[in-house]
Amino acid sequence: MKKEEKQEGKMDDQVMMEEYKRLATPGTPHKLLARMAGRWNTKTRSWMGPDKPPTESTGSCELEMLFDGRYLQQECSGDMMGSPFTGVGVTGYDNHTKKFVSTWMDSMSTGIYFFEGTGSADGKGFTQEGHHNDAVQGPMQWRAVTRLVDDNTFVFEMYGAHKKGKEEKMMEMTYTRK
After folding, report:
1. What is the pTM of this model?
2. pLDDT digits (tens, 9 = 90+) for 38-82
3. What is the DSSP secondary structure assignment for residue 53, as one 8-state letter?
4. Could you say which of 13, 59, 87, 157 has the lowest number of CB atoms within 10 Å?
């Protein structure tokens, strides 16, 4: 777009529609997400504190691309800390903000979690950040790292820090293609 058209607010309708179309077209980051589509077995390790051993659980997830390759939807089930668990998430890449954006909701809470972040330099993953107000421990910062190991394996790691505390690894989930 021409700079002066943007500044004056008199953008031609055709120019505006072309810009919206460009921003709505899936690109390289969306291809990264598409590589994660499929049926997966999961192995999860969860830590309740830095000095405690992780608990381990297994599950399965189905991931599919939505809206002609724009978003990746994830549906997971298994057990978490000895209880049945189900969760649904959607991840996309916003061409306008140049960020990966995600939502997550599951059977262990009533909140919807929001994350956003950037892709890795090697193009094989992304790191996102988010926050929420933990019902027991108060405000918490999250950092989530997703990295593709190969076409049949990817890893999701979740880190958290309460208030002014040190960041700790809370969860690691390894996805293996079925």
Report:
1. 0.87
2. 999 999 999 887 788 999 999 999 999 999 999 999 999 998 777
3. P
4. 13
